[in-house]
Design a protein that fits this description.
256 residues; alpha/beta; Nucleotidyltransferase, domain 5; 7 strands; 43% helix
Length: 256
């Protein structure tokens, strides 16, 4: 890759798979600089009593009692944000899970972050265009060896970087982050990270879920303003998605 600014590859382990309810318990990040240098960040985090699901524990083997002396996210949020600030982001399936849940933690910690400030290199999405693979399966295919320490955040992110570097020698990938981001997500018409809103073929923003699926935001606002209030105040959507709906509601109110 030809980097014009640093890119941070990240991997998270969490208490579960709910973007709105679960918490980060382990974060590993490696920052690659345009001159080839790199620096890393690693932290285990106390989820403040949030239980770890059996499914999550089955993957990362981290127990709540292992995290009792670890810092809570708000106490390390600033240093984590400073590490990624001014960088692009990369990871394995990071746009669907790691980045959204990290943004949720930032919002709870009163840190403002706009995902549009970052270009994203999602190795999983790149692979899905060429040949679907799990991280372990892809690592085995490319390097003919098993991934040691699979499902540990640090091992997984190191494997992700190694796979991406290997892919650059195999596939005809763009050589810069801007074009890689476009190549990976050019068919992605979603507005938010949960894909609750998207653009239709005419460029209008429409609902992508529920009873108003495929209806425009203007139409739904006209016939059922309370639906917006339910989404913002009572739904289990992420704080980031709720903020988008709140901004849309305020915008539509000014159009009246």
């Amino acid at each position: 890759m030809n980097l014009t600014k640093p890119i941070v590859f990240l991997d998270l382990e969490t208490t579960g798979l709910s973007l709105s309810e679960d918490r980060i318990i382990e974060i590993a990040m490696i920052k690659l600089f345009p001159d080839g240098e790199e620096t890393s960040y690693y932290k285990k985090i106390n989820p403040q009593g949030r239980p770890i699901t059996e499914e999550a524990f089955g993957k990362h083997k981290i127990k709540l009692e292992d995290l009792e002396e670890c810092p809570i996210f708000p106490n390390v949020s600033s240093e984590i944000f400073d590490f990624i600030k001014g960088c692009d982001l990369g990871g394995y399936n990071c746009k669907r899970f790691d980045i959204p849940i990290l943004i949720e933690e930032f919002i709870r910690s009163k840190i403002t972050i706009n995902i549009k400030d970052f270009k994203i290199v999602d190795v999983f999405k790149i692979l899905s265009k060429a040949e679907p693979r799990t991280l372990e399966g892809t690592y085995k295919r490319f390097f003919n060896e098993s991934l040691e320490g699979a499902h540990g955040a640090e091992a997984d992110i190191k494997a992700t970087i190694k796979i991406l570097q290997k892919m650059e020698t195999i596939f005809d990938l763009p050589s810069n982050i801007i074009d890689i981001d476009k190549y990976t997500f050019e068919e992605d018409n979603s507005i938010d990270l949960e894909n609750k809103l998207k653009k239709n073929k005419d460029g209008d923003i429409i609902f992508n879920f529920g009873k108003y699926k495929d209806k425009t935001i203007e139409y739904v606002f006209k016939i059922d303003k309370n639906y917006y209030d339910w989404i913002i105040n009572n739904s289990d959507m992420t704080l980031y998605t709720k903020t988008i709906f709140k901004n849309i509601k305020n915008y539509l109110l000014t159009k009246k």
